[in-house]
Amino acid sequence: MDFAFDRARHDRAGNLRRRDELWRTPDLRVLVLGGEHVATVDGPALRWVTIDEAPDGEWILLGDQNGRRHAAVAVPRVPAELAPVSIRTLAPLLDPDELSLAIHAVGLARWLQAHTYCSRCGEYLYTDQAGHLRVCPSCGTEHYPRTDPAVIMLVTDLDDRVLLARNPRWPEGRFSTLAGFVEPGETLEDAVRREVAEEVGLVVDEATYLASQPWPFPQSLMLGFNARATTTDLVLDPTEIAEARWFTRAELLEAIEAEQLVLPPPKVSISRWLIEQWYGGDLPGAW
């Protein structure tokens, strides 16, 4: 697979999280981050500091990679002298090993920053298990990191045309695949069928899982599917879809080369990978 965050490349060392003395070693490599912004050096690389150089903040054990232990410290804002850059910008440029650590850190940091009070009693939460658990000192409720499953699907018809759509918030010409969140009590396949029916009015019979991608903006797990539509007449939900079109492979390439259509960037979102899996190779053009 060829998209960001496609595979973990570090051992998360979950067995060490309960005891700080087991992982806060003198040679610990520490990443400073705030929200989705991470500290960098000149060029597309993360900036790692020592445990003594790390600022005060929420500590996160990331785990082991290539014989070294790694952690992160989440702060409200990364200092300017540490050259903060959004992980979305860095994703296609970073070494896969560093990207694996960064996406783990960003996902947890965003959850920690958004979950500071107990949803049961309102008490301020404290952090446990090296950033992987919040605990309420008043009622004892344990709060674990949240991941929201979302399906993202490449819809094709019986003639193997692909359906691409534009969100109302996107500029003219920007197209991608359909996507939507899974609802409680719903299978992934049913979520694919429901979202396609709601957004563009099509009936889907087969929904085949292909791959997944963590997407911590803020806390999603994108589950990629091929979806076969048995109908082709489009009925758009204008709150979700501004425009949708069927394309053959030749029509898609022609629209891109004529600069009438722009796809998601390569090597970042699973949506681009789904499109190129159908197309049968690389496509030009990116957001």
Automatic annotation (TrEMBL):
It catalyses: a 5'-end NAD(+)-phospho-ribonucleoside in mRNA + H2O = a 5'-end phospho-adenosine-phospho-ribonucleoside in mRNA + beta-nicotinamide D-ribonucleotide + 2 H(+). InterPro entries: NAD-cap_RNA_hydrolase_NudC, NudC-like_C, NUDIX_hydrolase-like_dom_sf, NUDIX_hydrolase_CS, NUDIX_hydrolase_dom, Znr_NADH_PPase. One of its GO terms (cellular component) is cytosol. Residues 145-276 form the Nudix hydrolase domain. One of its GO terms (molecular function) is NADH pyrophosphatase activity. GO terms for biological process: NAD+ catabolic process; NADP+ catabolic process. It comes from the Bacteria. Its cofactor is Mg(2+); Zn(2+). This is NAD(+) diphosphatase. It comes from Aeromicrobium senzhongii. The gene is nudC.
